[in-house]
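Homework help board

Subject: predicted structure for assignment chain

Our instructor gave us this sequence and asked us to write out the predicted structure in token form, then describe one feature. I got the tokens but I'm not sure how to describe them. Can anyone check?
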Amino acid sequence: MVNSELSQDPENGALSRVVLGDRVKEFVIEAIMNGEYLPGDRVVASSLAKRLGVSQAPVREAIRDLVLLGFLENEAFKGTSVRSFSAKELREVYTVRAALESLAARLAAEVLTDGDVDKLHTTLDDMIRAAREQDMERMIRLDNRFHRTILRIADNSVLYQLWQTLQFGYWTIVTTRRSSLDLEQLARRHEILLQEIASRDPVRAAEAMKRHIEDLGQPPIEQESADEPARSH
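My token output:
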């Protein structure tokens, strides 16, 4: 999903450290999902920086964030390595995200404007187009924009800050990679969600968001033993 080399932005010169850090995180998560990095594999900042052609500073920051997110782990005398996900741990991520975003959907439905609906429709149309073109990276970014827009419409700064801190957007990569649905099916799942939010019924909107996240997260996870690491194939 993320190119193995990070280059300068042709319009803005060198990418900022924040943007570079995000790209590094996406690269590592993608490498974990496609099996390039296996559970227990070490992730060394100097080696990763050299491979991606960037300085070590954004790589160190990305590794630190990935430890906080749960994709990597630090062990004394061993350094940083890829951690294994149990089925239970993955279920917990989806459950918490569903709870937060269902609240956001309920709040958003109460204040939704026609302009907000148009904005969500535009993002969804772009998402479906990216899916048809098999542009997974762009589709995931648009998916995150769709959900982030709902958080902003909800206009609850504490809720939005919590969502940002937990960085649930990166788990969209996991969801997309693990799903048995193709990209267009994944994109079109948002049509029902948008329809329910656009109804401006807070209860319907909240329930639709809860199903939207949990239904996609649960089935592939349930197929794995709770005692075994959950892996993407």
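Reply (TA_rk): Your tokens look well-formed. For the description, you could write something like this. Residues 1-15, 219-233 have pLDDT under 50 and may be disordered. That's the kind of observation they're looking for.
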